[in-house]
UniProtKB/TrEMBL annotation:
InterPro entries: PDH/Transketolase (IPR051157), THDP-binding (IPR029061), Transketo_C/PFOR_II (IPR009014), Transketolase-like_Pyr-bd (IPR005475), Transketolase_C (IPR033248)
Keywords linked to the UniProt accession: Thiamine pyrophosphate
Cofactor entry: thiamine diphosphate
Domain of life: Bacteria
Domain called Transketolase-like pyrimidine-binding: residue spans: 3-169
Gene3D superfamilies the record matches: 3.40.50.920, 3.40.50.970
Name the record gives this protein: Transketolase family protein
SUPFAM superfamilies: Thiamin diphosphate-binding fold (THDP-binding), TK C-terminal domain-like
Keyword Zinc belongs to the record: no
Presence of the UniProt keyword Translocase in the record: no
Family: Belongs to the transketolase family.
């Protein structure tokens, strides 16, 4: 059984802490959920529980960064990108501080705590913040890689992390921040995905293959800066596009891909798979993914539609 993403994150924090003495960790009284508690046990003098005070925590991180530390700031994604947004924008990003904002329980993975705890707009919010690198982990291997590689980025980074386990992905290229990863080759349609939707997209691709539709699946785990080259090449190769994300269809991965297509004059029918501009409810995680149409079945429907529209005039 694969480990939960939050457990992988916590263990990697400890490993990085041993390697980087300047790494410090802050948490908003949810360390047992974010698993930053593992770092606390190993390095109590470098761990700060600030209580349920996300804005103050993010402000403190900016100060620590200016003093030469590398803070990892932890709470649920829904709160770090809302309550913590003002200092993240006005202090951390404005001063281009080396701060890592770790948004735990991303998407719908905080299944039973209610709509206020689901983060379905966090990517859209953080995309608009200058200097911010945005990374959405798609499996355990990638969590470790993006955390380690982020230590070389001088500015702020936002990690979107799931509470859940994710199936391991087989990649044609090594994980590198800023570069997309091809997960499956295909000639009929490209499915750009991130996070849990990568495994859903691969499931969809296998079922589509039985229908004679060969889908190229690309993991665009770096939402910002997006890999424009792989987007353009994939669009030109397949001539039809699906974007699949555990996020609102407004402002997230789909919008980022459309921006590249418009800027590079590479046009193709595109269908977005995502949460349809609504608040979500509590429930079992797989049931929520199905209800809000962010599952393999929804990707299949979108791919059929995109392929059907190939060759039609774009007005």
């Amino acid at each position: 059984m694969e480990p939960a993403i939050r457990d992988v994150y916590g263990a990697e924090l400890v490993r990085l802490g041993k390697e980087y003495p300047e790494l410090v960790v802050l948490d908003a009284d949810v360390s047992s959920s974010t698993k930053s508690c593992l770092f606390q046990s190993e390095f109590p003098d470098r761990f700060f529980n600030v209580g349920i005070s996300e804005a103050n925590m993010t402000s403190m991180a900016a100060g620590l960064a200016k003093a030469g530390m590398v803070p990892f700031v932890n709470t649920f994604a829904a709160f770090i990108t809302t309550i913590g947004l003002l200092p993240a924008r006005s202090l951390v990003a404005y001063m281009n501080c080396k701060v890592r904002l770790a948004g735990a329980y991303g998407g719908l993975s905080d299944s039973y705590d209610g709509a206020t705890h689901h983060s379905t707009d966090d990517i859209a919010i953080m995309r608009a913040v200058p200097n911010m690198t945005i990374l959405v982990a798609s499996d355990a291997v990638q969590v470790k890689e993006i955390m380690r590689q982020s230590m070389e980025i001088d500015g702020p980074v936002y990690f979107r992390l799931s509470r859940e386990a994710m199936p391991p992905l087989s990649r044609q290229e090594p994980v590198k921040i800023g570069k997309g990863c091809v997960l499956r080759e295909g000639i009929d349609v490209t499915i750009f995905s991130c996070g849990v939707m990568c495994s859903q997209a691969l499931q969809a691709a296998e079922r589509l293959s039985a229908e004679g539709i060969e889908a190229r699946v690309v993991d665009l785990f770096t939402i910002k800066p997006i890999d424009a080259e792989i987007v353009e090449a994939s669009v030109k190769q397949t001539g039809a596009v699906v974007t699949a994300e555990e996020h609102s269809v407004i402002g997230g991965l789909g919008a980022a891909v459309l921006d590249v297509m418009a800027e590079r004059d590479c046009y193709a029918p595109l269908v977005k798979v995502g949460i349809q501009d609504c608040f979500t409810e509590s429930g079992a995680y797989p049931a929520l993914l199905k209800k809000y149409q962010v599952d393999a079945g929804s990707v299949i429907k979108a791919a059929r539609e995109a392929v059907k529209r190939k060759g039609k005039p774009i007005v």
